[in-house]
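Worked problem 6 (solution included).
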Amino acid sequence: MNSLKTLLLVALFVPALSLAQGKDSRTLGDTSNDELMTHTLDAVPAKVMTAARKAAPDVYFSDAISYWEDDFRVYRVSGRLFREVWNVYVRDDGRVLRTESDTQDDR
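Solution. The predicted structure is:
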């Protein structure tokens, strides 16, 4: 009887705890969709790298991160061109979402 009460309390407490933390109880413990993932450039899909190189030619890309947005994995491919830092955001289907550059002046 005590194990039944314990099981019932756990069944009620875990969903309440996950809702309090802002998570759906169906994905408790599964944060793979929410996390940023870092990638080496050879792990980034070829379609993504081709689109990034076309959007920012001559940029030396050095790293990439990815995350989920609107049912697509979005890759932020980062690199440098002289004193400029470039970030190119590309969906996993090869569509470029945006390109950002920032000059790193020592002023």
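Discussion: The helical segments are 2-20, 46-55.
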